[in-house]
């Protein structure tokens, strides 16, 4: 609200008498309070708005992976899914926390992550996120933030970093350009075929750096994009002990024991 004041106090009212200045200040304060009340009222109305009943799922306070699988089962097996389908509140509940991804219009439902997966994800996000924030390099996001490669390919990496120069591509429903860095935490539920398919999509999209954090092997591989081959090649790696480095986030070095603690 401070930036939205109609009058620049220092420049516009400095020549007024003290009494006139008090009146102007009172008017500005009243305008601020009125606008704040209006904004609060609008937010309350949005919160009270309920979506129309869906023929695909019952209204619930919380949805599990099994609920999403039941929804998908109601569509033809060969359906070509799109980003608009995922956003359609008649198809899927709003703001579900289940990871739903598309690759070439085929839908994939992620399994609920194990606690160990989440611990490692949290540690990695803390180390990378704090470095990015400290150096004012951009923003870090975590799953299920959507990365929109095209209308039929929507991926949700565990962690992604996007630089300040690409802020225009950050939308309410996801990211619309290649982030500089993508991190995937690999556990037993990540099938190799699916993992390789996602990795290729990241490379083709122009992601500059790709990390795989292997939970059971206690191993981290940092790969960077070869602009000639459009494939990722190993830049840094460590297993159980040691340090990994980032090329994109120059100066970032992480003791991997901090990730797996």
Describe the structure in brief.
By secondary structure, the protein is α+β, with helices and mostly antiparallel strands. It folds into three domains: 13-48; 65-109, no CATH class; 115-260, Alpha-Beta Complex (tt1808, chain A).
Describe this structure in words.
By secondary structure, this protein is α+β, with helices and mostly antiparallel strands. The model is unreliable at 1-7 (pLDDT under 50). A hairpin with a 2-residue loop joins strand 1 and strand 2 (106-109). The chain is 34% helix and 25% strand. The longest helix is centred in the N-terminal third of the chain and has 31 residues, at 18-48. It has helices at 9-12, 18-48, 65-73, 83-87, 115-134, 192-205, 256-260; strands at residues 100-103, 106-109, 138-142, 147-150, 153-155, 159-163, 170-171, 174-175, 181-186, 209-214, 219-226, 231-239, 243-245, 253-255. It contains 7 helices and 14 strands. The strands form 5 sheets. A 6-stranded mixed sheet has the order 3-6-9-10-11-12. It has a two-stranded antiparallel ribbon with strand order 1-2. The chain folds into 3 domains: 13-48; 65-109, no CATH class; 115-260, tt1808, chain A, CATH 3.90.1570.10.
């Amino acid at each position: 609200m401070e930036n939205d004041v109609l009058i620049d106090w220092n420049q516009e009212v400095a020549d007024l008498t003290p009494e006139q200045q008090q009146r102007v200040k009172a008017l500005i304060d009243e305008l601020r309070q009125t606008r704040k009340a209006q904004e609060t009222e609008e937010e309350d109305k949005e919160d009270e708005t309920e979506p129309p009943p869906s023929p695909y799922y019952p209204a619930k306070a919380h949805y599990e992976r099994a609920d999403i699988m039941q929804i998908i089962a109601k569509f033809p097996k060969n359906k070509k899914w799109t980003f608009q389908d995922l956003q359609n509140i008649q198809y899927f509940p709003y703001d579900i926390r289940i990871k739903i991804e598309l690759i070439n219009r085929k839908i994939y439902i992620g399994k609920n992550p194990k606690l160990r997966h989440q611990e490692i994800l949290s540690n990695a996000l803390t180390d990378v996120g704090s470095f990015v924030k400290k150096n004012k390099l951009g923003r870090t996001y975590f799953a299920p933030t959507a990365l929109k490669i095209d209308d039929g390919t929507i991926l949700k990496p565990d962690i992604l970093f996007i630089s300040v120069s690409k802020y225009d591509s950050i939308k309410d429903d996801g990211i619309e350009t290649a982030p500089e860095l993508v991190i995937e935490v690999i556990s037993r539920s990540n099938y190799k075929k699916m993992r390789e398919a996602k990795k290729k999509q990241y490379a083709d999209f122009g992601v500059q750096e790709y990390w795989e954090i292997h939970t059971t092997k206690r191993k981290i591989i940092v790969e960077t994009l070869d602009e000639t081959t459009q494939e990722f090649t190993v830049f840094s790696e460590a297993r159980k002990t040691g340090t990994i480095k980032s090329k994109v986030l120059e100066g970032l070095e992480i003791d991997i024991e901090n990730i797996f603690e």
